[in-house]
């Protein structure tokens, strides 16, 4: 029905307007009330010259647009009530068309939700709209123009993708490139990528690694990003202190330091890197493609994933969309004798409930280890379906669990070691691992038995990323 109103409104413009520009009226700023329950109300105050109003609203850059055609003021205002929720950090774009004393005026505003309030971050001036007739195939087509001769119509199929406040999907067609890094510069672009700097052993069941920003661990070379896990030279002498560099979110005491001589504690046995785009780029819905060579080596585990912006890269038990992963082990089987080594690729969803992981995964077995060659790993994230591809071949579709990802996500790349979820004791045969998850001396046991795993690490133990690209979908 709204589209019919819009069409009638456009046709009325053709009848009323003669193309004479006259800025005799200024549209006031919109007033917005967010309800405690689902929805919000948008309005502008009444004026004796207003004849009718058309509101168009785009909530967090999500299509389709919300539209309302108002022909009568109520309680001294022209208002529209919408029944969709606005979340914190959502962006609301509002365009208002006002017929005032037989002239049409347009104005747009952009507001951002901050703690249940809407802050105006951008506002255009009131503009008079003129119309223009175009003959095409012996027919007549009326197109709306701004006084600057800027067309309102779009010539491409709209996208459902939503990007962060630093960008916009408005005016972007499906298939458009939203984000790209080819890692072709001499140094990593630190305005795009940020490092997670902290140790991961603060929970006894966590990974046996500390993330650092050392140039020996993470660097660019010949157009590739290298993340190189490195075995520590010693783990028992002295204390481990990250100081102000630490990016801890939950507990600086646990994540940023290890006291010398503390009970059952050693310094991290492995140093690696994890980096993310939380502050620079995030998106909701789209296609992400990562061309990469995964790491090879016992108990190595790569992270190529998306994580909700309401969390941080450092957040414990965060929900994750895992683009792809394969364990570093060249040979590893579970208690059912299934191959779960680096020959099997996984992708899908990790959702946490009561500190327990619900894994909704798809997998594909290959005759080769996924660390032997570069592959294109693709995830297509839509509102109702997650599609997983490797080298353009679909190996899985997931429809469950997507309700837990109703917000924008950011990109995370990294390589970790061990982990109670990545290498679950309950699915592995006894004495396969040189440590036990949740054991208070797990890190020391892993280090003490390094002769069994360090020899499997080498030049292929790095995760090497050629490029990452995100497309509108």
From TrEMBL:
UniProt keyword Transmembrane, yes or no: no
Signal peptide (residue range): 1-24
Similarity remark: Belongs to the insect beta-1,3-glucan binding protein family.
Pfam families attached to this UniProt entry: CBM39
GO MF, one annotated term: carbohydrate binding
Biological processes annotated in GO: carbohydrate metabolic process; innate immune response
PANTHER family membership: GLYCOSYL HYDROLASE-RELATED, GRAM-NEGATIVE BACTERIA-BINDING PROTEIN 1-RELATED
SUPFAM superfamilies: Concanavalin A-like lectins/glucanases
Keywords annotated in UniProt: Immunity, Innate immunity, Signal
Protein name as annotated: Gram-negative bacteria-binding protein 2 isoform X1
InterPro entries cross-referenced by the UniProt entry: Beta-glucanase-like, BGBP_N, BGBP_N_sf, ConA-like_dom_sf, Glycosyl_Hydrlase_16
Residue span, CBM39 domain: 25-119
Domain GH16: 152-473
Entry annotated with the keyword Cytoplasm: no
């Amino acid at each position: 029905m709204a589209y019919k109103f819009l069409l009638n409104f456009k046709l009325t413009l053709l009848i009323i307007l003669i193309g004479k520009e006259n800025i005799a009226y200024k549209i006031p700023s919109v007033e917005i009330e967010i309800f405690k329950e689902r929805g919000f109300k948008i309005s502008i105050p009444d004026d004796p010259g207003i004849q009718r109003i058309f509101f168009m609203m785009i909530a967090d850059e999500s299509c389709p647009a919300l539209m309302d055609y108002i022909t009568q003021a109520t309680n001294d205002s022209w208002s529209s009530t919408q029944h969709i929720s606005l979340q914190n950090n959502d962006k609301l774009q509002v365009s208002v068309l006002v017929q005032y004393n037989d002239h049409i005026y347009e104005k747009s505003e952009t507001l951002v939700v901050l703690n249940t309030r809407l802050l105006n971050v951008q506002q255009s001036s009131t503009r008079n709209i003129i119309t223009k007739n175009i003959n095409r195939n012996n027919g007549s087509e009326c197109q709306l123009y701004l006084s600057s001769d800027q067309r309102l119509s779009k010539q491409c199929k709209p996208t459902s993708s939503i990007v962060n406040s630093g960008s916009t999907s408005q005016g972007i067609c499906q298939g458009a490139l939203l984000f790209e890094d080819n890692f072709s510069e001499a140094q990593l672009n630190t305005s795009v990528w940020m490092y997670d700097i902290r140790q991961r052993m603060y929970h006894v069941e966590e990974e046996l690694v500390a993330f650092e920003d050392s140039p020996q661990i993470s660097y660019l070379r010949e157009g590739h990003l290298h993340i190189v896990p490195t075995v520590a030279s010693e783990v028992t002498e002295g204390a481990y202190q990250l100081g102000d560099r630490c990016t801890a979110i939950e507990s600086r005491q646990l994540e940023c330091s290890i006291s010398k001589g503390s009970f059952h504690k050693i310094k991290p046995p492995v140093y690696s890197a994890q980096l993310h785009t939380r502050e620079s780029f995030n998106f909701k819905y789209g296609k992400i493609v990562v061309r990469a060579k995964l790491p090879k080596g016992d108990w190595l585990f790569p992270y190529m994933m998306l994580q909700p912006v309401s969390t941080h890269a450092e957040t414990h038990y965060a929900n994750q969309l895992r683009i792809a992963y394969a364990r570093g082990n060249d040979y590893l089987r579970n208690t059912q004798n299934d191959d779960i080594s680096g020959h099997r690729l996984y992708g899908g969803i990790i959702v946490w409930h009561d500190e327990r992981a619900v894994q909704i995964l798809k997998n594909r077995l290959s005759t080769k280890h996924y660390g032997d060659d570069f592959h294109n790993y693709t995830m297509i994230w839509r509102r109702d379906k997650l599609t997983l591809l490797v080298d353009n071949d679909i190996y899985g579709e997931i429809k469950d669990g997507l309700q837990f990802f109703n917000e924008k996500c950011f990109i995370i790349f990294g390589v970790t070691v061990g982990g109670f979820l990545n290498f679950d004791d309950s699915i592995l045969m006894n004495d396969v691992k040189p440590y036990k998850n949740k054991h208070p001396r797990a890190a020391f046991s892993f280090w003490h038995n390094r002769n069994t795993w360090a020899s499997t690490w080498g030049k292929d133990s790095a995760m090497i990323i050629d490029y990452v690209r995100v497309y509108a979908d």
